[in-house]
């Protein structure tokens, strides 16, 4: 709406609204004046000469900044890879390598971004202060993520487990695939990928099944009270002796542990290499069952006797006895 349109609108108003009409006309005139001023500035400054000057002033800086970013990013990847290769040749732990790879690249990439901004001619002194304030605010908002980062550093340096170990974390059993900056990745025995925040890892109990080279298999085997205990014990000992995976030291244990309600229970506790634990356990369970069948030993199991009471049948039986 220009001033003329506002004046016409004011003329159509009733005499009691003269003040409002005057204010409306003045406001429209001010808006029109601002628009005219902006158009005049654009016409006087936005010229081909001005565009050429801006391109000549900032074009080389922009191209230089782009080149710094692209080359710097490539160099960051190259330096990170070189450091990891050198560390791997020095036989640095693989768990630490994965963590360092992410950390070094993030630091170098941050420096590349600052250098690219500086190449544009931006004063990085003020930018550093802004980044520091922003970092403080973001850090306050992301306390949980920073806690995961700190926990990741603890996992890398204290090494409660390594990549490839079988562990139990937060009631989840799996193989450690990677320790990242904020998360630990597990692969379960049924091939499911589990991502656990590092803070949850350090806050709970960690069971490392691969930390020790040897593990003990604990089996409980029951036999009937009518079976010959010495014969049962000898059969169990022979099964352990015949398996080459069973270690002779520590010596395996076969002993009566309990006289149960319906069975005599033996504990069978052989030692094996950690990587052969499950295969040996499954084989022993199968061989013990087959040996019991072969020697006719009984394996008691819960049973119930059911008595069914029929009142009609009892009355008929009593009547028959009286008639006899």
Summarize the structure.
This protein is of the alpha+beta class and about 325 residues long.
End-to-end Cα distance, whole Å, is 124 Å
Strand arrangement across the biggest beta sheet: 4-3-2-1-5
| Domains, number | 4
Shape: elongated
- Number of helices, counting only DSSP H or I runs of 4 residues or more: 10
Question: Largest beta sheet, briefly?
Answer: 5 strands, antiparallel
According to CATH, what is the class of the largest domain?
Mainly Alpha
Radius of gyration: 42 Å
| Low-confidence parts | 13-17
Mean pLDDT over the full residue set: 79
**Residue share in helices?**
55-70%
Strand content: 15-25%
Annotated CATH topology of the largest domain: Helix Hairpins
The structural class is: alpha+beta
Q: Can you characterise this structure?
A:
With 324 residues, this protein is α+β, with helices and mostly antiparallel strands. The chain has 4 domains: 3-45; 49-141, Helix Hairpins (Orthogonal Bundle); 158-208, SH3 type barrels; 214-295, Alpha-Beta Plaits (2-Layer Sandwich), CATH 3.30.70.100. It is 59% helix and 15% strand. The protein has 10 helices and 10 strands. A hairpin with a 2-residue loop joins strand 1 and strand 2. The chain is elongated, with a radius of gyration of 42 Å. It starts with a helix and ends with a helix.
